[in-house]
Amino acid sequence: MSENLFDLSGEVAVVIGATGALGGACAMAMAKAGAKVAVAGRNTGRGEARVCEIADAGGQAQFFGCDAMDPASLKSCHESVGQALGAPTVLLNAAGGNHPDAIVTPEMPFEKIPLPGWARVFDLNLIGGLLLPCQEFGPAMCQRGRGSIINIASVTSHLPLSKVIAYSASKAAVLSATRFLAREWATKGVRVNSITPGFFPAEQNKKLLFNEDGTPNARAKAIFGHTSMGRFGEPSELAGAAVYLASEKAASFVTGSDIVVDGGFLSQTI
User: Fold this and answer.
1) 153 within 8 A of 198, measured Cβ to Cβ
2) The pTM is what?
3) For 71-105, what is each residue's pLDDT tens digit?
4) Which entry of 167, 185, 244, 265 is annotated as an active-site residue?
């Protein structure tokens, strides 16, 4: 019998932002692959619902309240996960988002974007989406000599998009910081990689992509025209990359890498 390279049995995966669509899909996939999953987030109702979904699919998960912007909350979450499920071996940082105050519009051109808007987006994607969670969970993994950290970048990390200047810049920073940590922690047994999603509709970007009646707007149609597959992605289509990077068997020599799951967006030209 061939070895299952994607078996996550024995892994304890903390998925911060598992209450969202993309983080939830990754949490589900890791649980199906055998990991014990800590569903971490601020919304208890959504978190418990996600745990039930995972349990119904035959996986093992537990909800842990966690605010990725609060070091004390992250520390408490870390300790609670360790007591309930065991020492975390996988960290997936799926928290992040955009903010209306940092989107370029005819009424608010680039030069008028307020500093608090910039700060809010960088807080969401870089500080809470990478820095603070990695500072909390990373050193313990290094001390144990084993771990996989997965950050969520974006096609905007590679190709800045119109209107979302702060989001693009913050996601470029996520990609850069991921590679920095990969170098710093490689000899300590901790792999640090990122996933670049293409366009996956979610609550945070619906207003940018859809008309009030739910039909794709001009921006969405432009995205379809720039995506080789001509459509948006489904959350489940991102999950395989997360399972791969989490696997000590399948990705043991993979660190500092970025896996692009974008339907061909970055490869599309004329």
Assistant:
1) no
2) 0.94
3) 999 999 999 999 999 999 999 999 999 998 999 99
4) 167
